[in-house]
Each structure stands twice: as C-alpha cells, then as structure tokens.
Amino acid sequence: MRASLPARAGLAFVSISIVEFICVAMTAFASAWVYHELASTPGLRVKVYLLASCFIGAAEVCIAAMAGQFLHLEKQREIRFASAGIGAAATTFVVLTSLLFIFKLSDVYSRGTLILQFVGCSMTVGLVRLAAYRAFQNAAEEGLLQRQRVVLVGRHDDCEACAGQLRKSGGGFDVVACPLSWDAASGEAADFDRATGAKLVERCRVLRPDSIILLVDRKQEDGSVGMLLSLLRQIPADVYAVPTHRDIFWANAQTADIGGIATFAISRRPLSVFDLVVKRTFDIVAAAAGLIVLSPLLLLSSLAVKLDSRGPVLFVQIRHGYNNEAIRVLKFRTMYVSDSAEFRQASKGDSRVTRIGRIFRKTGIDELPQLWNILRGDMSVVGPRPHAITHNELFTPRIDSFDRRHTVKPGLTGWAQVNGFRGETNTLEKMQNRIEHDLYYIDNWSLLLDLKIILLTLFSGKTYRNAW
Q: Which GO biological process entries does UniProt record here (predicted)?
C-alpha cells in the first residue's frame, strides 16, 4: 500500500473541487441562457438562475466531498473517478427537482432548463474529472505533490542512511531534523525514558513535521519503543516506523512506501488537508454569520455584564489549542473580580459566580465571544473544549493519549459536551470520560458529525445538564 499523499496532494484535491464548482456553476447558468435563447422565452430571470447555478455547483461538490470522491485520488481509476462525479451531479439534480416540486416553483424554473442543465453539468463534471485526474497523475509522477517535512528518529547512522535515501528518491522530501539519535559509536541504545520522550515530542511540535519516521533497532527495548510511539501519536503528523532488522514488525500496522523505504504506518493525522479546508471554510462562514446574527445579543450581554458587577466585560484566559500551542480564549466574565491568581473550576453553587453569570453559564451565552476566536483561526465551531493550562498539566501524566485531543483545533462545543460531560472535572473518572468522547470525535470526524453536534448543542437538554 502506498502512503497517502501529504499536504500538496491535499491542496490539489482542494483545487480540483474549486475548479469543479466554478465549471459546474458556469455550465448551469450557460445552459439556462442557451435554453431561453433557443426557446425564445421572454426575459431570462438572471438573479434566479444565477443563485440556482451557484447552488448546483456547491451542492455537487459537497455531495462528492461527503462521498469521499476527492480523497486518495492516487488509488482511484480514471473512469471511476469521472463516473462518480456524474453520479454526484445526478444526485444534485434529484435534490433540486425535489425542492422545486416541494416549493411549487416549476412556473419560475422551466423543465427544459432543468434537463439541459443536467446534461450540460454531467458532461462538464466528467470532462473536468478526466482532465484533473491526468494532471494529478502527471504531477505525482514528477514528485510535485509529495514534498513534505520529515523528522527522523533513531541511531545517527540509520538516520543519515534514511535521509540519503529520501533525498535520492526524487519525491520532494525535506528532512528537517534528527532530534533524537542513539549512540552510534558504541552501537548501544541510549538511555531512554519518558522524560526524554517528552522532550522529543516538544521538539517535534516546534518543527511541525508532516511525517515522523522512527528507525527501530533490535537493541531498543520493546517497552521504550512502544512508549515512544504512544507519545508520537499525540502529535498532528503521520507516524511511521522502520525496522532496521527483518525480525522487527508490528502485527496490526499497515505497510507504507515512503520514498522507496518500506515502513509500518503507526498513525495518521486525524484530518486530511481537504478535511481541514472543508472544516475551516465551514468555521469561517458559521462564525461570521453568528457574529452578525447574534450581534444584538452580544451587545445586550456586554451591557448586562457591565451593569451586574464591576470589572471588564470579557474574561481572557490562556489555554492550550492545536498542537499544544497557547491561545487566548475569550468569554463573557461570569465571576466577581478577584485578586487571587489561583485557578479553581466553577462548582455547583459557587459564590464567585455573578447573578447574570449563572444565566450565562447555564445557557452557554458566556462562550459566544469565542466566535471571534473561531474567525481568527484559533478555534473551530466543533472540537474538544480547550482546558486551562493548569488543568492540562494536572491530567496529562495521569491519562494516556490526553494530548492527542490537541491534534485538532479546540471547539466552541464538542462531542463530550453534548453527551453530558460538560462542566466540572474534579475527578479522574470525569476527565477520562471527557477524553474518551474527544478522541472518538477526532477518530470519526465528518462534516455531518459536526452538524449533528451543533444541533444537539442547540436542542438537547443533556448539553446543559452539568453547567453551573
């Protein structure tokens, strides 16, 4: 099995989807114009057909994306890729026809236009897919899509040999560092413990690699290697292991070819580049719309906080975000101003909470300023909730894979919250339950899951059960 293409391939998938949207929308509008010219019907309703054409283009791309048609293009066949696009176009027109029937708009939108648009858009999608597929394959063969930052971990000699192989492969790999190496002179494994592994992880976070390749020597103990791999899984990068001896293997791991080097794929980044673009686009649209629509509520809330108690309207707290980087999270202030710098979670009946603060915390209004964090790119609409840094420092050594929740951006709401794991986490069991739900979300992400979580946040009472 070949390794999935990294960042540049993801950008290629995004480019294909954008081109497809533009071509389909233009074809839909041109088809409407051609039909009205041929049929000599009075006056083309430009605004109606322009909006409809944009809907057709967007719907076709969204349907194709949700079906995973733009993923792993290197593994698809040319004809299948094109026919799948035509299928997405057909589904789009089924949806459009249903909407026209439900809302009784057939007198505004002629059947002849609809038929011509379907034929034209189907042909356009097929041709765009064929051209895009060939362009993608040519770029892949020339190594234009496989440029990625690689960190090597292992004995110095093994790292040097692997780096040389990657550079000679012509795949466009950039070996950015070998941050950890074992003693090459003695041939013995260096003393390796969890503290050393933690330093390696922090080094990798700074380097921001696309891939981490661990070169495993027979002399490394299974326990130390397993512990290191467990730590590396908490970094938003693809992690591979290369055995330097044939008798080393991982039973359940898939094999992957990286620059001609046979590796075991230990873990993948939770979201592909295409997924990240889809999620970020949704975040920008949702956050911008939320700030506009909710601006009266935000202004009234600001006034209520100011009148209720002395102090600033907003409370700013440093929390861990994507890749464990510190972010400034905004909230409406819900507690009385205190000189104490000690962090303590709010508890039921907490005397520090203001009168208006109790309402805000119960309804989630206090979190709405984080729409600005989302627009800035620090957060996402949906994701694991960001914890205070003190909280992270307390639970990171006590819960395995705790930091893996930081392989995606933190969210305004999340899977744990809509399942009742919101509020105070004053016991290890409560935090473990929250982390389990956060990791489930990361491992099973989809745009549909995000939409489901948003609906549950708005309409499920379980979301607010432990808010105080």
A: colanic acid biosynthetic process; polysaccharide biosynthetic process
Q: What is the pLDDT of residue 1?
A: 31
Could you give the angle at which helices 46-66 and 447-459 cross, rounded to 10 degrees?
110
Q: Does residue 48 or residue 183 have the better pLDDT?
A: 48
What number of CA atoms fall less than 13 Å from residue 188's CA on the CB side? 4
- Quote the CA–CA distance of 69 and 160 in Å, as a whole number: 38
Question: d(Cα 16, Cα 128) in Å, to the nearest integer?
Answer: 8
Domains and CATH numbers, the chain: 7-141 (no CATH), 148-269 (3.40.50), 274-464 (no CATH)
Entry pTM? 0.68
Average pLDDT, the chain: 82
pLDDT tens profile 362-381:
888 999 999 999 988 899 99
CA–CA dist 358, 364 (Å, integer): 10
Closest CA to 24 of 66, 56, 47: 56
Length of the chain: 468
Q: Do β-strands 173-180 and 238-243 pair in parallel, antiparallel, or remain unpaired?
A: unpaired
